[in-house]
Amino acid sequence: MRRLLKVCAALLVLFALTQAPFVYRRRHLSRLDAAIRSLNAQRAATDDAGLADYPGALHVHSSLGGHSTGTLAEVVAGARAAHLAFVVMTEHPSAYTDTRAATLSGTHDGVLFVPGTESSESERDRLLAFGGSDTPGGSSSMQPAAQSQPAALPADANAAPTQSLIDRAKAAGQLVFVAHPETFEGWQTARGFDGMEVYNLHADAKNARPLTLFFDGLWSYRSFPDLLWTRFHQTPTENLRRWDELTAVGRRVVAVAGNDAHANVGVSLQDLTGRSIFQIKLDPYERSFRVVRTHVLAPRGQAFDADALLAALSAGHAYVAFDLLSDATGFRFTASNGAEQKILGDEIALVSGVRLRVAAPVESRVVLVRDGRRVDEKVARGAEWAVGERGVYRVECYLPQLPAPLGATPWIISNPIYVR
Ligand SMILES: [Zn+2]
């Protein structure tokens, strides 16, 4: 009996020891939560440069394209809850249904939906294609010669080589973005795509170690379900390097975030009729949409419809923000050369010099990157640089106010201004 007690006591001590790091990490999340609240309370309006800021999500799946249990109603509800202005749906093709035609399009509960496709999971080169000829609300300006073209990325997308998929999508007037850059192999050969995901939430989640996440979840899920993301999040260094490489050789490549939202991670117990008895969903749409958003800038006072969204995305008038760390709405990156004023995504002539301006709703460490190299940084709500050299200039903002390691991962990643 005494021996049994000893064994039990030893096991209890062992359990307590293994759980200590998770208790400590729960306290860390509590500090992070307080820091985020304090940052959001400090937000101030910025000079909006005549532009409205539309936060949204790209790369979203429902059960239509397989490997997701999400319904269209759940996508709409999640988008509303995360205050999204738009969602780009990217269903996988199916041999049996036209998933692009069947998914969300138009405006639902105040959120703009644009239907699209992601090439099959079996492809190493994954592409998102959306907009184009049969997008509701789309006008002819986005669709040269589109009327007789079939929707791109069709059901046989599995077999088509990357370039022919891009060509077909572009011929149908669609925008094409490289998804999952971590597995993409066509960097040297693929031409004509509009942009790429510099961050993919689903790929980031693969950094999670299941056992660690399980115990973190046990201690922290109830209080800080959203912040569990910070337990595995890593800076997408390799994607950023790849992107910089492309733009440094003169290509225009628009950066977006891929929410890659599936609502398919969790545990559920059902009866034989499929009625749910018990269910925990780790990645409901609302949570995937809150972690990271792609903000699109479009002229204030004009209608924000599918045309306006696609035109802004195509022009790179967009930035990526990890809004869970602090709402980045209001961020601006502009340039002027005396004769004209441009914004992120645009080209501007150097003439006798260009002034670059950054404004953010809270103080941050603003890092200026030229042709992939960090050239300067300032800690401020707004930063300004006079540049006298041609190059591809972009900025990253960091929040050193947040506890490590979050203070050292980018909060905002802007599209570049091309000084020519
Ligand atoms: Zn996907």
How would you sum up this structure, described in words?
The chain is an alpha+beta fold and 420 residues long. It has a domain at 49-329: TIM Barrel (Alpha-Beta Barrel), CATH 3.20.20.140. The protein is built from nine helices and 21 strands. Helix 2 packs across helix 8. The longest helix is centred in the first third of the chain and has 40 residues, at 2-41. The protein is globular and about 90 Å long. It binds zinc ion. Zinc ion (ZN) is lined by residues 59, 61, 118, 260.
Key traits:
single chain, 420 residues, alpha+beta, TIM Barrel, two-stranded antiparallel ribbon, 9 helices, 21 strands, 30% strand, globular, binds zinc ion
Give a short summary of the structure.
The protein has 420 residues and is of the alpha+beta class. The chain has helices at residues 2-41, 72-81, 99-102, 162-171, 201-205, 210-220, 237-248, 285-291, 306-315; strands spanning 51-60, 86-89, 106-108, 111-114, 116-118, 126-130, 175-179, 195-200, 254-261, 266-270, 276-281, 293-299, 318-321, 332-336, 341-343, 347-348, 354-370, 373-387, 391-398, 412-414, 417-419.
